[in-house]
Design goal:
Blueprint: H1 2-11, E1 15-21, H2 31-45, E2 52-58, H3 67-80, E3 83-86, E4 88-94, E5 99-104, E6 111-114, E7 117-119, H4 128-131, H5 172-190, E8 203-210, E9 213-219, H6 238-254
Parallel strand pairs: 1-2, 1-7, 2-3
Antiparallel strand pairs: 4-5, 5-6, 8-9
């Protein structure tokens, strides 16, 4: 839970603090890193009593899919002195022995790491009922056209968000753009009209890189930037942190969930 994680960060006495990113699609690709940066920032201001190292074990070959945002995150990694191990995927945990086992997905060697603190982002997948249904495609999610959100084999089925196999993050920001497309195309299909609404893969990931620091990533299927503000959003900004902390929650609870544009 959030509370237990915060307590573990406060109680950390030193040694290896390991944060993991699994070899599966995630609700938000940047989520495993956000808590790591907050923890590293906290320990920099409140050093543990004995030496420590922060390690980020990520299953992918890059720290983020969009290069300009990846560069910003690598600068944050360097600032905190975090050791990143790419294509390093968690496979097992020895709790009593405080050791984590990893497989190397590239050309490196598998190995184990001792830890004093281990923050695991669990592997994620489609629910069992969906994986076993005729709606599922490769990976177990509902198989839909990435632009119209209509099923590729069943014309009367549409899907979005967590249930779909759309090749983007399963974030609230993405679903906010998907929902109007799905509704428009669903109504068109019911009226036997062409499906003209198109979703181009927009998603957003507010990447918290420390206290009062945030990179607001916005991009589409092709990793083209789809930024909202007239400045370079790849830079860490306090203003974007305040947006995430105070504005977006109100927008989510007061407008999005009530169906307001």
């Amino acid at each position: 839970s959030v509370d237990s994680t915060w307590k573990a960060i406060q109680d950390f006495q030193g040694g290896n603090a390991i944060f993991t990113h699994p070899n599966t699609p995630l609700k938000c690709g940047g989520a495993p890193q956000k808590i790591m940066y907050l923890a590293a920032d906290y320990w920099r201001k409140n050093p543990p009593p004995t030496p420590y190292k922060v390690l980020f074990c990520i299953s992918t070959p890059t720290i983020f899919a969009v290069p300009i945002y990846a560069d910003a995150l690598l600068r944050a990694v360097e600032r905190y002195g975090i050791e990143v191990r790419f294509e390093f995927n968690l496979t097992a945990i020895d709790g009593p022995g405080q050791s984590a086992q990893f497989e190397h997905l590239g050309e490196g060697q598998d190995g184990s790491l001792p830890y004093s603190l281990l923050h695991v982002t669990p592997p994620m997948g489609a629910p069992e009922f969906l994986r076993q249904s005729p709606l599922a495609g490769e990976g177990g999610w509902c198989e839909v056209n990435p632009h119209t959100l209509q099923h590729t084999r069943f014309d009367n089925v549409f899907a979005l968000g967590d249930a779909s196999n759309l090749p983007t993050s399963k974030t609230g920001a993405a679903i906010r753009q998907q929902a109007p497309v799905l509704v428009e195309n669903l109504l068109a299909a019911a009226a036997k009209r062409p499906l003209t609404a198109q979703y181009e893969g927009y998603t957003s990931c507010p990447l918290i890189t420390g206290y009062n620091r945030l990179v607001l990533a916005e991009f589409d299927y092709d990793k083209n930037l789809q930024e909202t503000f007239p400045f370079d959003q790849s830079k860490e900004r306090r203003s974007m942190y305040l947006l995430k902390k105070h504005v977006l929650p109100r927008f989510y609870w007061s407008r999005m969930l009530k169906g307001r544009p």
